[in-house]
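Lab notebook page, bench 4
Experiment: in silico fold of construct C2
Operator: M.H.
Input chain length: 291 residues
Purpose: comparison with the prior construct
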Amino acid sequence: MEKSLKLGAHMSIAGGYSKALDRANSIGCTAVQLFTKNASQWAAKPIVEADTTLFTEALEKYGYPSTDLVAHDSYLINLATPDDALWEKSLTAFGVELDRCAQLGIPALVTHAGAHMGSGEEAGLARISAGLERVLGERPGQKVTVLLETTAGQGTSLCYAFEHIRDVISALTTESKERVGVCWDTCHIFAAGIDFTEEYKYERMVDSFDRIVGLDRLKAIHMNDSKKGLGSRVDRHDHIGKGMLGVEPFRYIMNDPRLAHLPKVLETPKGEDMAEDIENLALLRSLVRSV
């Protein structure tokens, strides 16, 4: 297992948080993403001390540094909504997600920040910033970083453009800015209309992100091929090399020294035996050029 690659997949927490690490280790993951609760429900049972202990023990057993772990928040949360009741509910739920990460020692929480639902992009982005400012401000000193995920721009979803992410972060106070980073999703970037299927296009994309947001804010990457084409604005993940992106963009990422320190995780479809993860991970590892 080549730990320096920091390569893995989203893992189920069925049976307990430590089970996610058991599953990850069994297929050679060196990075892991998980939910801290059922992503399709608002409510969640509190994390008890025994859960935290088992999770910590599994981290030590398998040698996972906490820096190679990320969590993903609930799909119900919408920090951009103009609906005040839903916004308040989303802020509460998002705060709980951050607290659960802190309990488990997971340093980063990925979020699809939200959809403006007809209020317009400017209003929706301002709403995200205000929400983040409040939730982070209520948790001074908490060591969990929020990672704004690049989206496909499906429906009224925001953060499909690097400029959106820049605008959200720029509206935050200095203290909050330090607690917000970015997670690229390769499928979403492509579906949103940014072509990085050739090397010069990939370099153009990285340079654009660095100029607009800052490469130092990039903290994780979701490694997903896309079932739909460039600019489709449709969020549908496919297996590596079997979608519209093809293999080459993943070769660029796997060999980019600027990204070597980042956890890279699959979110591709899979069965209980994780055979698809095993195949996708093997393909990604095979792309790494020997020095």
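Observations: The chain has one domain: 3-286. Residues 84-104 form the longest helix (21 residues).
Next step: discuss at group meeting.
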